[in-house]
Amino acid sequence: MSKIVKTLTIAGSDSSGGAGIQADLKTFEEYGTYGFSALTTIVTMDPDNGWHHNVYPVDAAIVAEQLKTVFAGGPVDAMKTGMLGSVEIVQVAEKAIKDSLQTNVVIDPVMVCKGEDEVLNPESANAIRDLLLPLATVATPNLFEAGVLSGLGKLTTLEEMKEAARLIHKLGTKNVVVKGGKALGGDLAIDVFFDGSEFTVLETAKIEPAYNHGAGCTFAAAITGGLANGLTVHEAVAKAKDFVSAAIRSGYAFNQYVGPVFHGGYRLEK
């Protein structure tokens, strides 16, 4: 390789391997990049209690030490954030991005774990909105997160997704992808991309069975990989849609509770 392309994820651990920092690093590898990581939270899922999620944030000072290590080599070609766990960790991420003059920043404003429907930490969600969205090249909220960030609440239609994207863009991010995925009615998995002036609707046929655990993290990581490799934001988002669709098609049933995407699906289909 004539040039090492570097990517970074600041995110939580998913021991089941489908989402979080594990999904990000697998995706970075599929994009041919060298992945760095800073672990923010450890998430466990309890098979004896209906797959209930427990979230254990890492001390913010330790997150800062990890990022000091990463940025000792200068800025990376692109980076993303995922689950951050506390206001202090959000502040650490903000400082690292600013101090390193980092560009190509993807903010995945993770507020819940799949299967959960309440904001894990409302103060952290507010900090992501206020501190990180203004630094974002792309923000990638799902329907729940877009409803919270925009103040619109539950989103159920394409037009509501577009309005949420417009309102989130006003918070400072340069581009927004509202991930509808399989959540909207009909036969299509729909995402909406907004660059501040135009909307692009990204559609693929819904996949059944939908082994989609980790799809959101994987999508944001794929955008990161695309930006690191020199794609435009629009190109990176379009390729990420194809990448995550292939990952869902190649997914499998991990147990009775969850089925993760398979991050090598795009490569295998090629």
Automatic annotation (TrEMBL):
Q: What keywords is this UniProt entry annotated with?
A: ATP-binding, Kinase, Magnesium, Metal-binding, Nucleotide-binding, Transferase
Key word Cell division present = no
Instruction: Tell me a Gene Ontology molecular-function term this record carries.
Output: metal ion binding
Q: Where is the Pyridoxamine kinase/Phosphomethylpyrimidine kinase domain?
A: 14-261
Q: Which domain of life is it from?
A: Bacteria
Pfam families with a match to the protein in the record? Phos_pyr_kin
Quote a single Gene Ontology cellular component term: cytosol
From its record, what is one biological process in GO terms? Answer: thiamine biosynthetic process
Could you tell me what reaction this enzyme catalyses?
pyridoxal + ATP = pyridoxal 5'-phosphate + ADP + H(+)
Top enzyme class, one word, equals transferase
Q: What SUPFAM superfamilies has UniProt attached to this entry?
A: Ribokinase-like
Q: What is its EC number?
A: 2.7.1.35
The similarity annotation says:
Belongs to the ThiD family.
Cited PANTHER family: PHOSPHOMETHYLPYRIMIDINE KINASE, PYRIDOXINE KINASE
Q: What is this protein called?
A: pyridoxal kinase
The protein's organism comes out as Paenibacillus typhae
